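Q: What would this chain look like folded?
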Amino acid sequence: MHRRDFLADFGMGFTGLAMGAMLADQGVTQAATLPAGEPHFPPRAKSIIWVFLSGGYSHLETFDPKPALNKYAGKTLAETPFPNPVDSPLHAKRFRSVAAAEINVRDVYPKIYPLQVGFSRQGESGIEITDWWPHLAKCVDEISFVRNMWTTDNDHAAENQMHTGRHRLDETQPSIGAWAHYGLGSINESLPRFVVLGGPTRSNTRASIDSYYLGPEHAGVPLKLDPKNPLRFGSRQSSQTAAQQRNEFELIEELNRISVDRHPRDEKLLARIKSYELAYRMQMAVPEVANLSNETAEVNHLYGIDDDATKVAGRRLLAARRLVERGVRFVQVFPSSYGTWDSHRKLKENHSKMCKSVDKPIAGLLSDLKRRGLMNDVAVVFCTEFGRTPGLEERSGGTTGRDHHPNGFTVWLAGAGLKKGYVHGETDELGYHAQGDGHYVTDLHATVLHLLGLDNTRLEVPGRKRLDIDRGQVISDILA
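A: My prediction, written as structure tokens:
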């Protein structure tokens, strides 16, 4: 495919998505249905870094340790002094299995499995966190933990549900990043508004960054951390010098301007002119932000890039800092590959390894944002698709793991507009159900959009009626 053909049809492909979004800001594309590109009210944050850990980390062995699991280990749920959580009306209300209820056993394992790691209170706030987070433990006084999240899908389609708010049996909705992109204008016109690092994790998780009926220009733009080729068609051909390319662009612009004089109402022609201008800017800006080589050795150490165990997550989180520093609105980061936190077997071995791979990089990000003064402008979200069962997974003779658990789990947020060293909500004594009303995943969406100055109830598209659950409710208790 020739570059001119590509640019002429710039609306397709990831590069085109980025340019299409920028063109919408300039009134070149069909912008009549777009919001004004301004916040609904003064924002608390300018940018979001959304960190997603695929596979479902155990809330019990990370951020919501339950000593009762050790005390009653080996007993059944019914043998504890607590109400049996399987009998709770919350179980039916918040659980939606694709399999028939009579054959589903995914979250009702009766034998209690003890914690696989120790825990302690950390920081001045005294928040409990497990021993697998030695670096993040030093940052708890910067974090708001939400311990009463819940969702409905008990399989890994929940990865999409966490980002779109819809169960896989329902109509797909745009992702949280797409809504942020749709609602707000650009800060840096040489970079996309919604960038994805390390994902989507595979083809069937495309929904987690997609925009659907909002239009392709609002979808996430995946970037590779390769300064030579971070974005398809985003770099100059090796056979062409910078001067030659500049001359080519100037000639094309001149010819296009002549055509505009003859056809001033040709929107496709106007869009093509803008696409060349934007492509030129992007090919300079995108490789620069993807080039981590000019960071100091101290910064590389802070993010764990000098250690093979933490290098992948460290590079992606450092790139996220560089992107928000340059004005990208929404950066979605996948620090690890698809399903790696899924611990049906060998939970202790898996989680100790996976926590180590992320612990230093995510603590490094928080420390780096703070010392650069970016915590006043950036909010960080750290989440997964569901938690893990308090009961031992016994399918196929299992003795060392926990199954998927959508009924209650933990996420956390830190940075602009958020309380520090704070815990909101709780699960029951066994870590089974999110207590009270809890928070469905779209409450997290509404909170993030609120931080950006957007009212989720006002983000509408003609002909697309959203449900109340799609809009969610702001978790106002964690707001500073």
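The two ends are 51 Å apart (CA to CA).
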